[in-house]
Specification:
Elements: E1 10-13, H1 19-27, E2 32-35, H2 38-47, E3 55-58, H3 67-70, E4 76-80, H4 83-92, E5 97-102, H5 116-126, E6 132-138, H6 146-162, E7 167-172, H7 176-181, E8 186-189
């Protein structure tokens, strides 16, 4: 089983790649690209605007002071994690934006995201913002613990069902197979592409 068997689920984490490499990835049939940083996304989007059908995902933490310059340039935000950010999106976004709430299931201080005990209230509050189209939940697995990562992925799926959301964004280059096992809708794949381009 190759990760490329799941092209429709892959968001290429393109911070790892220059423009020539991104074009090679695009030619493999990948049309979803995710950047961690606002400046990088804006630059790459401008340089690749000749390629049709690319969807741009912001997969890194979005600081509120960067919202104005980026929010109308992306198709998906994977890292919604505060009401303050929601307020800024509401202020500057022109049309509803497809968003994932980042959920911190490992309760790690080094990771962004909403703790699960705060998720219910957060989702209720988001209903006040019509520029946010909440489509799902995102999480990051445990860095070096497969058992813990599987628990995290199972829990995210349960939360998706509980809140009747349509998608999960989970799984990266080191744990994408586990994410597929647990029905992830989007995989954020970066370094794996180095072996195929």
């Amino acid at each position: 089983m190759s990760f490329l068997d799941y092209k429709e689920k892959i968001v290429c984490a393109s911070k790892y790649f220059n423009l020539d490499e991104m074009i090679k990835i695009y030619n493999l049939g990948i049309t979803n690209f995710g950047e961690n940083y606002v400046v990088s996304l804006l630059e790459k989007k401008e340089q690749l605007k000749h390629l049709p059908n690319i969807k741009w995902h912001l997969i890194g933490h979005l600081q509120t002071n960067k919202v104005k310059q980026i929010i109308n340039e992306i198709d998906y935000l994977h890292t919604l994690d505060s009401i303050k950010l929601a307020e800024m999106i509401q202020k500057y976004r022109q049309t509803p934006l497809s968003c994932f709430i980042q959920v911190n299931l490992e309760k790690s201080d080094s990771k962004s995201g909403i703790f699960v005990e705060n998720l219910d209230n957060f989702i209720k509050e988001l209903k006040n913002y019509d520029k946010i189209n909440l489509i799902g939940l995102m999480t990051i697995g445990s860095h070096d613990d497969v058992v813990e990562t599987e628990k995290i992925f199972i829990q995210l799926n349960e939360l998706k069902r509980t809140y009747q959301l349509s998608q999960t964004s989970m799984g990266m280059s080191n744990d994408w197979q586990l994410a597929i096992k647990h029905h992830s809708d989007l995989l954020r794949i970066g370094s794996l592409f180095k072996g195929v381009i």
